Amino acid sequence: MISNIEIISRLLLSAFLGGLIGMEREANNRPAGLRTHVLVTLGSALIMMISIDGFRGTGFNGNGGEPARLAAQVVSGIGFLGAGTILRNGTSIKGLTTAASLWVCGGIGLAVGSGYYLGGLVTVVIVLFTLMRLGMLERSFLKKKYRVLIVNSIERSGLIGELATVLGSYSMDIRDIKIIRDDEDNALGTIEIRFMLKVPKSFPNSRLLEGIHNIKGVKEVGWQM
């Protein structure tokens, strides 16, 4: 039997731990922020405690149900919630990290609700380190390995193909293409195209930029600093 003090302590701790992760997501303006992460972690802890202590005196021989069976539904349930944070815009997909953080918060809540405090606390530390520090390391690594070419142009059919042909002639390996449309310049049909490229060690940069600039409709071209 879980004491009243223990119940309150576990609920408060789960809300606090979920709030730490939620604050990081909120600070980065992600789809699911502080309140969502708190509620997910808190709810998971409550369900875990219900599955452990809520069915005493029922079931076969009065032993209650199997605690893992109710708690297991949290994992699949959060999957639907996380799917709502994933957004796709053209070739770009956003929200996967936030969906994963919600899923982990569910696990943290289950851990705290079951009294597995050390596992929950260590997981929070690792999650915060992953969200706050690994992102910078990842961007630093990609910055060294890849370069982003930004092209501002009038939108027209065949434009992407012509740009890719020029890049290919200089042995540029295209890893990602992102198209951004400016609503204010919608009447002019202006778009910004960002190519993530794996570039060779040496190439005629000025000739490459000149060749792209000569393509019909291109206004500006340059490397992202």
Automatic annotation (TrEMBL):
Keywords: Cell membrane, Membrane, Transmembrane, Transmembrane helix
Membrane-spanning parts: 32-50, 70-88, 118-137
Keyword Methyltransferase applies: no
Protein's membrane topology: Multi-pass membrane protein
Pfam families, alphabetized: MgtC
Keyword field contains NAD: no
Principal cellular location given in the protein's record: membrane
InterPro entries: MgtC/SapB/SrpB/YhiD_fam, MgtC_SapB_SrpB_YhiD_N
Ranges for domain MgtC/SapB/SrpB/YhiD N-terminal: 11-139
Record's subcellular location: Cell membrane
Protein family per UniProt: Belongs to the MgtC/SapB family.
Protein name: MgtC/SapB family protein
Lineage: Bacteria, Bacillati, Bacillota, Clostridia, Peptostreptococcales
